[in-house]
Amino acid sequence: MVMKSPLWGAELDHIRLDSEQPDRRVAFYRDAFGMAAVDLGDGDTLLQGAGRRLLIGRGAAGAQPYSGFRLPDEVALEAYRGHLAGRGLNLMPSPSPLFADGAFAVADPDGRQMVFGLPRDDVPTASPAGKAAGLPGRLQHVVVATADLAAMVAFYQETLGFVPTDHVLRDEADGGQTLTAVFYRSTPEHHSFAIFLSDGARPDHHAYEVTCWNDIRDWADHMADLHIKLWWGPGRHGPGNNLFFMVEDPDGYKVEISAELENMADGDPVRQWPHSERSLNLWGPGWMRT
Ligand SMILES: [Fe+2]
User: Fold this and answer.
1) Of 102, 248, 278, 284, which one's alpha carbon is 20 to 30 angstroms from that of 96?
2) Residue 35 placed within a domain
C-alpha cells in the first residue's frame, strides 16, 4: 500500500497578487479572465469567476506573496496542521480573508507564504459579466522561480509533503546534472505547484485548467478581441502533456490557459526530462528560466 502524503487532496484555492497599480491589475483579470471584482473594504479586491478566484492588493509590482491551498475537510486540515507542527514548523496566522478560522500559513525559504485552510462561507459574491464569464477555467496550479532550488525542494517536498511528479535536469560539462525544475502534485493531477531554477526568487505564473482544446481556441479568440497578444504558445508541455498558451498581465506576470493536463497514478515514480526547449514545449520555442 502506498502511503499518502498528509497534504494529499489539497487543491489550489486562490492566490494573492500585489501591484503598485492594483486597479490596473484588477481591470485586467476582470476583463481578460471573466471574473467579477468585489471590493473587500480594506484595499484588497476579490476577483471571482467560475472555479477561479484571486486577491489583488497594493504592494510591490508583480508580487505574488501567498498561495492558498484548500484541504479536503476539517479532519484533513487538522491532521496536516499536526503533521507540520510535529516537524517543528512555525505556523503563522492565515493572511487570507478567503479562508475560515483554522487556516494557517508557513513561510518558504524565499519568504513566500503558503496558506492552508478551508473556504469561509461568508465571502461576498458577485457574478461576472461579459463573454469570458462563460468560459471554463478552473484555477489549477501556481509556479514560482528560485535561485536556491535545493532549499525549496527540501521545504516543499520533505516538509510540506508535495509529491514530485517530474524532474527537469541539465547536463553539465563535468558530466554531472543540475536539477532545474520540479513539478509537484497534491492530487492525481500532474502538478498543482512547481518550482523553476532561476537567477532569483520571483513569481513565475499561475494557470487555469479548461475542459478541452476548443476552450483554448475560445480563450485565444477572447484575448484577440481585447487585443491581448499571446505571450507564449499555443503549445504542448512535455511535463504534464498539457496544451497551453500564456499571456502577460499588466505587471508582466504570466498567466496560463491549460487543457488536458495529465493525471498520474498512485505511486508513479518521478520521471526525468532534459533541460531543453523541447521539454517545455514539444511544439516550438520554450520559455527557458535558466
Ligand atoms: Fe503552468
Assistant:
1) 248
2) yes
Task: Give distance in angstroms: CA of 256 to centre of ligand 1.
Answer: 6
Regarding whether 111 and 141 lie in a shared domain, the answer is no
| Ligand 1 geometric centre to CA of 85 (Å) | 30
Distance 88 CA to ligand 1 centre (A): 31
pTM of the model: 0.97
Is 288 among the domain residues?
A: no
Number of domains in the chain: 2
- Cα(143) to centroid(ligand 1), Å: 7
Residue 76's SS3 state is helix
**Do 221 and 251 sit in the same domain of this protein?**
yes
Checking if the pLDDT of 280 tops 60, the result is: yes
pLDDT above 70 covers a percentage of the chain that reads 99
Task: Render pLDDT for 215-252 as a digit per residue (tens, 0 to 9).
Answer: 999 999 999 999 999 999 999 999 999 999 999 999 99
The pairing of beta strand 163-171 with beta strand 104-107: unpaired
Is 163 domain-assigned?
A: yes
State the CATH number of the domain containing residue 234: 3.10.180.10
Find the 141 Cα to ligand 1 centroid distance in Å. 7
Residue 1 has pLDDT above 70, yes or no: no
- How far does residue 145's CA lie from ligand 1's centre (Å)? 12
For CA atoms 9, 247, 194, 170, the dihedral sign is: positive
Tell me whether residue 254 is in a domain.
yes
One domain for residues 51 and 159: no
Reported as a pLDDT band with limits 50, 70 and 90, residue 207 is very high
Whether 37 and 26 have beta carbons less than 8 Å apart is answered as yes
The per-residue pLDDT for range 96-135, each reduced to its tens digit, is 999 999 999 999 999 999 999 999 999 998 899 888 999 9
Looking at the structure, tell me whether residues 165 and 273 fall in a common domain.
yes
Q: From the CA of 142, how far away is ligand 1's center (Å)?
A: 7
Cα(200) to ligand 1 centroid in Å equals: 19
Which domain, by its residues, includes 41? 11-117
